[in-house]
Amino acid sequence: MGNRTFSRVACAVMLVAFASSAGADPIIYPAKGQSADQQTKDQNECQGWAKQNTGIDPVALANTASQSAAQQPVGGERVRGAARGAAGGAVVGAIAGDAGKGAAAGAAAGTMVGGSRQRQKQRANTANQNAQNADVQSKLATYNKAYAACLEGKGYTVK
Hints:
By secondary structure, this protein is mainly α. It has helices spanning 3-24, 36-54, 58-70, 77-96, 99-153, and strands at 28-29, 157-158. The protein has one domain. The chain is 81% helix and 3% strand. It has a two-stranded antiparallel ribbon. The two termini are 40 Å apart. Residues 5-23 have low confidence and may be disordered.
């Protein structure tokens, strides 16, 4: 796995973890004196109920977010641009009498075009990732509302 892919996966995992810890995960208080064992049992039941009623599985959601981040490679556009430019420049240079100078000029121009394409792809990937992150946060909020409603119905205070 390349550094960029690893960074994207790590970013997606941290985002989901942050979304869960940044006020999205409810704080649960056993208002009717429920034991720790009873609270664990009730929480497990409510997690299943929330998953069933919202159709949202937070674990699957986190896995999907990290996989989609890993599948968005960006890079190599400069190298490909340089290769294309060098090939085109060599042809033009051969016609003008110096294929080497033409290839060098073409490679330089191709590198610049490739860099521009790489930046465009990066901007598009960033916008796409931001949209996916907003969707993940929205789904987690919906799931947590259902989870909290279930726990409140079982006599817990949820904040």
